[in-house]
Amino acid sequence: MSRKQKFSRANKNKQHETDIPIHNDVEEQGKTLPPRTKKYPSSKAKLTKVYYNVVFVLFVALVVFLLWYGNNYHSNTSE
Question: pTM for the full model?
């Protein structure tokens, strides 16, 4: 088989049609694997929540620090 015949689009469509196995067994149709998301749940939502909580706490700490710093070191400059 030449390279042109092997990798042509027309031949590729025929190849996909023949590669798909057809199962007529009734027993196999009832046995399916669980979805990957149920078997291996993602912790992305939990990590996102922790990340946003840490960012919020750091922002509040920065505001409190700047207010404290401003009151201690720059409030007596007008006297």
Answer: 0.49
